[in-house]
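Purpose: get a first structural picture of the assembly so the mutagenesis plan has something to point at.
Setup: two entries, given in the order below. No constraints added.
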Amino acid sequence: MYLFTNAIKNLGRNKGRNMLIAVITLAIIISTVVTLTINNAAARVVDDIRLDLGSRVSVRQDFIEMRQMGLDGRRDAQHIPLTDFVAFSESEFLRHTTFSADVLAWSDSLFAIDDPNLGEGTRVLDDGSVMNEETLRLVTISDPELLPDFGTLREIVDGRMFDGINEAVISEALAAHNDISVGDTIEIIGAYATDRMFSLTVVGIYSDATDEYLNPWITMFGLFPALNRRNEIIASFDTLLASSWETNAGLDIDFHYFLSNPDYLEAFEVEVRAMGLPFTYNVDINRAAFERVTGPLAGISSAAFTFMVVVLVLGAITLGLMSYMAVRERKYEVGVLRAMGLERGRVAIGIISEAVMIAAVCLVIGLGVGSAVAQPIANGMLSGRVAEAEAVENPGANRALFAGGQMQIGDGTAGYVPVSEIQLNLGVDIILQIIIITLGLAALTSIIGVVIITQYEPLIILRERT
Amino acid sequence: MKCLELMDVSYRYEGSKDYVLKKISASFEAGKVYAIVGESGAGKSTLLSLLSGLDSCKEGTILYNGKNLQEIDRDEYRSKNVGVIFQNYNLLLNSTAVYNITLSMKISGDMASKEQAYALLKNVGIDRETTDRKILKLSGGEQQRVGIARALAHNPDVIIADEPTGNLDEKTEAEILEIFTHLAQEDGKCVIIVTHSDNVSSVGDVVYRIAGGKISTIG
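Result (structure tokens, whole complex):
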């Protein structure tokens, strides 16, 4: 016990030196708390995103590959049955699958907003070419919970969300435009497969606060009624399957296969290729989007880690040198204690106790101060990175839907924004890591002293002083 | 009863071919005061280092209560069995006088009380006010007395003193010598004093002289 009492008294006796060691230790601990907290929080968020966006595999036509194969004008030849897409979801490498497919459509009995006529129209473009002008869009999805905007900008105000096959929900605007009520039946025709008639029962009407036109293709084609979000008719993906729509021709598909482990991508691709997926389809994760979303986080995580390593290395060297100098100063004291019969081990315990006490006080203060300043520092670092990321021009929409199929453009990052905030938490794991680092620092400062001091015989130390 | 015994002890410093002590033999009994005299550099302090367990002899044997000093725990020997008064005091400079005493008691495993420490310091002429001052603030004479009190703090069987009264006035010297005599005669301690002083050596029941690496009895 007296060793600890003596250690406490020694801390006071050598205030100047111990304060200096404490300040350096505190600076190291605060820096480590901040950087570890940021690093862990960033890694956690990136991991979460990796499990979602990073493990979300899309199966899409590769138009570059098709062009190289001379199939550019023969997209039909490369369309594959929807049942194949569904069969892919049985893979053992997947956690779950979501299907979403949009169909451009028109109706002989339903007026689309921004289109005065019934039925399918045509439009003469500036270059003289003529294109079909679909007026409506049938949006199908495997799980209504995944519908974007519902719960925020859209809300069922009458009836309910679709549940079964051939049930649909429409916007208040479209309902009012055509005097449709819940329970009415509407009929629409798929633009690509004109023999597909969808006879849908309106089971719900929703309010819609989204922008009417967002699709960047509008700048190319003008106000294309089918791109007006009020003209969306939303139904289940099973409705599309039940319509006997055979392939992905004429569909804007968003089939997402969520891997149970992001590393399974290659194995999953091998499996679906074996099931007949042609090489004109890409099986890939949207890496560009993943990098765009997580880029700033990865940046601050990397910067924080580098900073932590630098601080730890420089701090350890500084503490080591200070410890060495402190030991030389205390050589006489140790000589006296040894001459009084204090064993080497007990001298070591005393020195280690002093280092641990300094480290413990610094740990408590460092955890408090570090956790208090970590969030503002992280916010500052992240906002800078996000600003850099956002300064990179967004290349545009992911794809566009034609009556004959969909086209991928851009790098696939449209609609994805970098993570702009992270919530830092000083979790048990970080505290344990900090404790280990602190103990390491305490060990460093004390072990150097212990090793040097205990190799001297007391008489030699005292004789040197004499 | 022989407390310490030197048997053909030789010693030379590391790197030196010359022996400081050459096959010396001597014995020290409990209840007696021994004075060791000799010229500077004769090897008196070296002998004290060997007897106090701070150093070990290269040849020969030193026995403590019949046991070879080389074979016993010399840390324990220094903390419990022998009290050393150094010529240059060797106190903890940043600590108070009383702390130096209580720490010595604690290291020896004794129950340390400040009251005992105050009493010891009072016996060597340190007043209460001085006991709570740091060693650095004390005069050489006061430090010498604290060194003596510390050597006695853990009630050792053997007290070894290197010029213990070198910084003391005559009156205090007489008091300290009286304490040493009392410790030997009344408490049965073995007191070994290295000194240049005839006055100090005069209290020795046995006086050894070291010269030319040899030891001889002169009184």
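The longest strand of chain A covers residues 94-106.
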